[in-house]
């Protein structure tokens, strides 16, 4: 087993990423800027940004770039977001998906705790906007906990994402320092509710913050108990000296063991590796659990709500922010179309543009909304 370390210790060789800026990287960066979008890849300093962007994959944040929470692991800015919602944002995101020719999109956000709906209506309308422009594109959403709001969760489910992702991030004992404004049992309950309403579900954690193997195993049992379809496990990397230090660098063999154990506990798909983030290989993960075909039974199909363009939209709890120079904000405008167990991270999506297998992710920070 790897020895415990702190963040000032040099990273082991398996965590060193070769930086490269090819033509696809530069084109995607231009597209993100032109469409006034925020990427979690940049805001959360994802180590996979060079690889993913060169493969025409990216993880975007909706609802702005200012989060109302102060998680100990996350590099996204904390503060008070602008009032209201940017109703032009869903079409900008959908336009980017269309221009990139993607087959699968991941959407995340900042936390918007100042809103009763958590920003869920923008999540829902973004899903619908992508479906209108690109009917064959699968959509995963990485959502916040909405402070436990069932209405906000249902708003997102009514738009029928192919995968509903909410990250547990860490083991229960570390929530006080890692996710001080969140509750483990509430996040676990969100996953259970979504599953009960017909969704394909996914969650992720970071390791290296001081958790024990036993605590990780208990968390995996909890994830299996709520019948979650996908679990991602990745190495925590300290964004700045102001964030929580790395207590341990796990060896790739240890990540392989996490995968083996998680699947033995009954989780259908476990993606585990040092550089794994929440949207890493997202399209392949969706395929593995039958969640990648939009508008079919394999996609999330909640027991209540419809896919009609006239549906109302609810709220979400991702990192908060809207694009720079946002379009008109009209918070009254409806979106068109639109105690229990023990035991909530952003990932790097992957695809092969040469095979038309691009992946665009729009997800919450670091590993996920806190």
What does this structure look like?
- Helix 5 (120-133) runs parallel beside helix 6.
- The strands form 2 sheets. Strands 1, 2, 5, 6, 7, 8, 9, 10 and 11 form a 9-stranded mixed sheet that branches. Strands 3-4 form a two-stranded parallel ribbon.
- The chain has 11 helices and 11 strands.
- Helix 5 links the parallel strand 5 (104-108) and strand 6 (138-142).
- It is globular.
- It has helices spanning 23-34, 40-43, 49-54, 89-100, 120-133, 150-158, 175-178, 184-196, 213-225, 252-264, 282-288, and strands at residues 38-39, 57-61, 66-67, 77-78, 104-108, 138-142, 163-165, 201-207, 230-235, 269-272, 359-361.
- 29% of the residues lie in helices and 12% in strands.
- The two termini are 29 Å apart.
- The longest helix has 14 residues, at 120-133.
- With 370 residues, the chain is of the alpha/beta class.
- The model is unreliable at 1-6 and 294-368 (pLDDT under 50).
Lay out the secondary structure.
Elements: H1 23-34, E1 38-39, H2 40-43, H3 49-54, E2 57-61, E3 66-67, E4 77-78, H4 89-100, E5 104-108, H5 120-133, E6 138-142, H6 150-158, E7 163-165, H7 175-178, H8 184-196, E8 201-207, H9 213-225, E9 230-235, H10 252-264, E10 269-272, H11 282-288, E11 359-361
Parallel strand pairs: 2-5, 2-11, 3-4, 5-6, 5-11, 6-7, 7-8, 8-9, 9-10
Antiparallel strand pairs: 1-2
Helix pairs in contact: 4-5, 5-6
């Amino acid at each position: 087993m790897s020895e415990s370390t702190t963040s000032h210790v040099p990273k082991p060789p398996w965590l060193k990423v070769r930086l490269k800026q090819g033509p696809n990287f530069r084109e995607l960066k231009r597209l993100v800027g032109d469409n006034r979008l925020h990427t979690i890849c940049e805001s959360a300093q994802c180590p996979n940004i060079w690889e993913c962007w060169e493969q025409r994959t990216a993880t975007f944040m909706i609802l702005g770039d200012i989060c109302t929470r102060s998680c100990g692991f996350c590099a996204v800015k904390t503060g008070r977001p602008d009032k209201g919602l940017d109703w032009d944002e869903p079409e900008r995101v959908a336009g980017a998906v269309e221009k990139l020719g993607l087959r699968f999109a991941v959407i995340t956000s900042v936390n918007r705790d100042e809103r009763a709906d958590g920003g869920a209506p923008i999540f829902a309308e973004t899903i619908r906007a992508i479906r209108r422009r690109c009917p064959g594109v699968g959509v995963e959403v990485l959502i916040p906990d909405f402070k436990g709001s069932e209405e906000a969760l249902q708003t997102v489910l009514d738009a029928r994402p192919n995968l509903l992702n909410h990250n547990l991030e860490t083991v229960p004992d570390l929530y006080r320092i890692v996710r001080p404004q969140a509750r483990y049992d509430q996040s676990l309950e969100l996953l259970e509710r979504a599953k009960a309403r017909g969704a394909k579900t996914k969650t992720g954690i970071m390791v290296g913050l001081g958790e024990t193997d036993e605590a990780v195993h208990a968390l995996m049992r909890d994830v299996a108990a709520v019948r979650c379809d996908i679990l991602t496990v990745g190495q925590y990397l300290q964004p700045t000296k102001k964030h929580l230090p790395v207590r341990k660098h796990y060896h790739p063999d240890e990540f392989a063991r996490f995968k083996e154990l998680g699947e033995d506990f009954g989780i259908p798909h476990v993606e585990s590796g040092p550089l794994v983030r929440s949207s890493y290989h997202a399209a392949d993960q969706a395929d593995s659990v039958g969640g990648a075909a939009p508008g079919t039974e394999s996609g999330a199909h909640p027991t209540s709500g419809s896919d009609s363009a006239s549906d109302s939209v609810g709220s979400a709890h991702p990192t908060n922010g809207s694009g720079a120079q946002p379009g008109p904000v009209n918070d009254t405008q409806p979106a068109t179309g639109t105690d229990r167990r023990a035991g909530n991270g952003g990932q790097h999506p992957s695809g092969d543009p040469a095979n038309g297998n691009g992946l665009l992710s729009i997800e919450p920070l670091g590993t996920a909304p806190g």
